[in-house]
Amino acid sequence: MKVLILLGLCTLVLSNPGTYFKDDLNDDDWESRWVGSTHKSDYGKLKWTAGKFYDDENDKGLQTSQDARFYAISTTFDKFSNKDKTLVVQFTVKHEQSIDCGGGYVKIFPSTLDPKEMSGDSTYNIMFGPDICGPGTKKVHVIFHYKGKNLLIKKDIRCKDDEATHIYTLIVNPDNTYEVLIDNNSAQKGSLEEDWDFLPAKQIKDPEAKKPEDWDDREKIPDPTDEKPEGWDKPEHIPDPDATMPEDWDEEMDGEWEPPMVDNPEYKGEWKPKQIDNPDYSGKWVHPMIDNPEYEADDNLYMYEDFGVIGLDLWQVKSGTVFDNFLITDDTKEAKEAAETILSTTVKGEKKMRDAHEEEERKKREEEEKAKAAEEEDEEEDEDDEESEGDVEEPEDAAEGDEEEEEPAAGKDEL
Fold first, then answer.
1. 146 labelled binding-site residue
2. Stated pTM of the model
3. Mind listing the pLDDT tens digit for each residue in 353-377?
4. How far apart are the first and last CA of the chain?
5. Is 409 a member of any domain?
6. What are the annotated disulfide bridges (predicted)?
7. What tens digit of pLDDT does each residue of 313-323 get?
């Protein structure tokens, strides 16, 4: 059955020329496709598992398994270009470890990359996916490599940080627009040129233009007819009139005594004339703009001549993330349908299993709490019984009877 499924997947890829790469990692031959980098000797190990909660235990992915490690693994596919085509990158991420700091993104490289030499310094075309580090960083990265620079998106896209499986989708269109979806819902979209610094600004301030010397941009001015009231100028602090020199003050040794300073109740602050409309107001001066001579339009911001490798190149403080359901295609419908299937099976099934587990744990806690409460109640009753027994006094008659012995009757010899 597994062979038939694999053949079916292969047939799907081959029969649909718009599907460039697809791997749901559901076969135990995944290690023949995914190659670990040997650029460093201490990369973290990935294990093949469905995780703690799942819809089908055979629906497996790659899970980070060692804390505080870099991970570097990739797989190749037939080289292609997205020229004149839509590019869709999609995969799932499940942070089972309640992640506090770590990457959950993928990188798509040119076919020239040697998977065994992949590292953080390897040039990639696109980096996409969630990244979390503390409460301040919970974002979806969308980074494009352009003319030797890695360009970060200027908008904020918040990622998911719970323990469920989530689907991340990036769509790049040949009209230089894009969209990011999370669980088949739009999270951000717009223009490549506007939301990344691919190109210099179309217009810049005219370096030759200067504000005229007689330009008055003061909307309000002090009233020249306003005069300071008499007696306004009072010091802010005055000597304390109630202070007296201490009896033990020796001016020869301590110097001349001066009373401490206190706030002056008659102090009115700095006087300023009232403001009036400026009769010579010229308005706000706006620096004239000119076309930027360094700007050159590029209709191919979206395009890369060579895609051929997809990989995980990331750091995690706490391991446990499961990566799965990788898809690269030019068919948005295919990606949408794949995501809908994942949501209705994988996501729904693992939630059902998680909810059942949490309910079982809740009942277990309740039983333990009841047992503990019953045990404490029994202990209290035992203590009360012991105290009651200790307080019981023997009857007075019985006690006296024990102390006095009955005298024996006179015997025959004594008579």
1. no
2. 0.75
3. 999 999 998 999 988 888 888 888 7
4. 119
5. no
6. 101-133
7. 999 999 999 99
